[in-house]
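Progress against Task 2.4 (sequence-to-structure conversion) is shown through the following example record, which the project officer requested during the mid-term review.
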Amino acid sequence: MAAVRAELMYRDGQREKLSVKVENNLNSLINGIQELNVNVSRILSELVEREKEEEDDSDEDDEPEEPPKS
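Structure tokens generated for the chain above:
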């Protein structure tokens, strides 16, 4: 048995290792790479969403409140 592996390194230097077990044949290897791709895409999408939310929250905090209109 073999495995397909990937390692993500975040901006802060933290690392996340991913691994998918595969059999010793081409179909299994292709499926393993596709599964790894899905896993990495999911993690990166979540990271982008989290950073976007943090950016939106910081933008709201930086903006002065508008005075009430009379």
